[in-house]
Design brief:
The chain is globular, with a radius of gyration of 21 Å. The two termini are about 35 Å apart. α6 runs antiparallel to α7, α13 packs antiparallel against α14 and α14 packs across α15. About 70% of the residues lie in helices and about 0% in strands. It is mostly helical.
Length: about 425
Amino acid sequence: MKTETADLVSSDVETPFLANSVQAAPQQHARKKPLTLLPLIALIFFEVSGGPFGTEDAVAAGGPLLVLAGLLIFPLLWSVPEALITAELATAFPENSGYVAWVTAAFGPFWGFQEGFWSWLSGVTDNSIYPVMFADNLRIFVPALNQGWPRMAFLVTVSLLLTYLNYRGLNVVGQTAMTTTLFIVTPFVLLCVLAAPHVEPTNWLQVDWGSVKWGTYLNILFWNLNYWDSVSCLAGEVDNPSRTFPRALLWAVLLVVASYFLPTLAALGVSVDSADWQLGYYGKVAQQVAGNWLAWWVVLAAAASQIGQFQAEMSSDSYQLQGMAERGFLPKCLARRSKHGTPTVGILLSSLGVVCLGFFSFVDIVEMLNAVYCLAELLEFAAFVRLRMVAPALPRPYRCVGSKCQGSIVYNV
């Protein structure tokens, strides 16, 4: 396969790094791949979203009108182009190094390593958010988790338990992701239905331009709608990636946008005071429209969401290190798999980073990771454009064409 690919790209105008990148790609062994369509959709859902949790600080910073508009506009400007590029390049380079392979093929090993380092750093920083969000959502019923040693003990314990679950393998992670997606979506469908009689549509139009905290608003919104590329680091574990990846990304985009916009629309129609919106507020809205039973379900859904997001991000981060080791960027020990087929050393390193960063606040973590993530994204978009220019014969099982491709390139510029 690698020889055929190298032959196909040898006639391209200028591919100084592509042939070497193809030769460095790991051999695809004849083993059963654990990820099929539905588990992959669920993992992408958790890589990016996991439900509307995390939008509360955006409401507090920007108000109802800006948040609702942002949840519709940002996916068009950012999520769709990123998903299209991921679909094209993940099927062209179906290996666990993911975006590292794209950037290496376009710009060489130096920039490929930078891409890997920046992406792993932002991924680990992102993953440290989920135990924090878990604790914050439980505060409505367990006030002791506000601060002090109970909060610290809780964060460390949750991180270690979830790391062990990830160690058990992608079969376990994928099946867990499918089950928890259904558990998370159901209470918000009920919330939307039960809130409908109480909705005041004028609430959605409110905005106080003078008090908008633009930095926080944009950072939170951007964080909630990015990381579509992370799933490329699981490409080597996907069954029939050329067919499965594009379909999974399409359905995941629709699921993510709906899971953000509809519950936020319903909740803002009921409760519009932006000052009250903080992590865990959806539970209070559920309590207001339906009582404690739905509030508890939303809180448990938040817990399930944070577990799912942690698992999805930990998988991408650790398999990325494994893929980089297979390409020779990192020591070979990082390429070794456990008896469950998981990259043990990569999981341990990623878990250590999560524990160290978990004591920062939600907003502080988001602001840290967005800066690093943007550097990695610029390289990925640039690699997409360059490979289109210098390697037109590169086999691309999925290719975004016409206005979709043009929009992605224009947005990158």
